[in-house]
């Protein structure tokens, strides 16, 4: 009899302890995953993708936009004397890449030359080699070039301005 009562108590505790009494943490920033809408996309069928091709319009000149452009003031020196002669009077530099090793900056410069840019390499006071694609005397021209690079070359959307200190 004692064994039956003990077995009933053990089984009762086992079943009672399996149930979770916890509730999901409630926060104004989280929602119940079961109530969230399911989002999916349906791939376009071949008939939709083979619709009439759109004529390609000529890219229009880009005006300086109000889009955020990262800017930084640094003292820089030119790594090439010819670049220094051509760009020394400019104060705004459109930077497309930064490297801690000069060899990496030179390799990147070669890549950009193949894409039609005329890059120069600057050595900043921070020790980085900045790869510049254009330099200007006034800020609005430099901002216009940044917007143009971002529109024409989406892979270089992180282009920024260096202001010579």
TrEMBL record:
InterPro entries membership: SPOR-like_dom, SPOR-like_sf
Biased composition (Low complexity): 43-64
Pfam families: SPOR (PF05036)
Residue numbers spanned by region Disordered: 28-65
SPOR domain segment(s): 86-163
GO molecular function, one term: peptidoglycan binding
The protein's name in its UniProt record: Sporulation related domain-containing protein
Origin species: Mariniphaga anaerophila
């Amino acid at each position: 009899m004692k064994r039956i009562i003990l077995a009933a108590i053990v089984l009762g505790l086992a079943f009672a302890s399996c149930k979770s009494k916890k509730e999901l943490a409630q926060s104004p920033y989280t929602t119940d995953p079961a109530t969230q809408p399911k989002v999916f996309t349906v791939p376009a069928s071949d008939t939709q993708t083979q619709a009439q091709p759109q004529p390609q319009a000529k890219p229009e000149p880009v005006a300086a936009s109000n889009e955020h452009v990262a800017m930084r003031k640094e003292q820089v020196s030119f790594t090439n004397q010819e670049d220094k002669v051509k760009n020394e009077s400019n104060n705004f530099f459109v930077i497309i890449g930064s490297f801690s090793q000069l060899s990496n900056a030179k390799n990147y410069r070669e890549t950009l030359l193949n894409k039609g840019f005329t890059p120069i390499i600057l050595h900043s006071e921070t020790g980085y080699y900045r790869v510049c694609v254009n330099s200007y005397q006034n800020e609005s021209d430099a901002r216009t070039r940044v917007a143009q690079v971002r529109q024409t070359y989406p892979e270089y959307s992180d282009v920024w301005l260096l202001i010579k200190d």
